[in-house]
Amino acid sequence: MKKFSILKSIATPLDRANIDTDAIIPKQFLKSIKRSGFGPNLFDSWRYLDHGEVGMDNSRRPLNPNFVLNNPNYSKSMILLARDNFGCGSSREHAPWALEDYGFRVIIAPSFADIFYNNCFKNGLLPITLNSNIVDILFQYQGEIEINLEKQSVKIENKSYHFDVDPERKRRLINGLDDIDLTLQYEDQIRSFEVQHLNKYPWL
Predict the structure, then answer these.
(1) For 27, which of 54, 56, 58, 84 is 20 to 30 Å away at the CA?
(2) What is the pLDDT along the chain (204 residues), one digit of tens a residue?
């Protein structure tokens, strides 16, 4: 998992509330259990004018010119700005996979669905909850936003807004530790246990 410290980027303004996980990555793309390759189908039904299926050449598909991800001004954006209840619906982990694979590292919204919120941290995404009034300000702002995880701040020009984050989740993101990395921190102890267990129960 990529380490997270300070990120500077413009934000992609997705001005909708109650965006569910089926909108983030539609059900027909859930056949794969790999964490990569979902970015081209992020928000597929909004992003393209035709119906998407697995295996299609997305470079040949007609784009929806009115959808924000197709605006070249946001092509390098790593921050997604949205409204209330982002990530509602089913608990599919493919949703944060698709967002991360596309290139987003941060999602800012007034509120998130609980399971989606938890899945973000497991996949290297930082979901930031801010007051609706602050989110309104960010939607109006056109410049670069600085996200400082260590200071837990969202900064625009000379204004800084604090966000809360669980200390352990913060530590894991800063150090780039997913669940597997955490387990591997105890690799020596695990190997020692396996040797002792095999010696004690050789028939297992």
Answers:
(1) 84
(2) 888 989 999 999 999 999 999 999 999 999 877 778 999 999 999 999 999 999 999 999 999 999 999 999 999 999 999 999 999 998 889 999 999 999 999 999 999 999 999 999 999 999 999 999 999 999 999 999 999 999 999 999 989 999 999 999 999 999 988 765 655 565 667 676 666 767 777 776
In a domain, 31, yes or no: yes
Q: Are 8 and 143 in contact (CB under 8 A)?
A: no
Which among 130, 184, 137, 169 is positioned nearest to 156, based on CA atoms?
137
CATH number for the domain that contains residue 150: 3.20.19.10
In a domain, 79, yes or no: yes
Q: Which domain holds residue 174?
A: 6-200
Residue 162 lies in a domain: yes
pTM of the model: 0.87
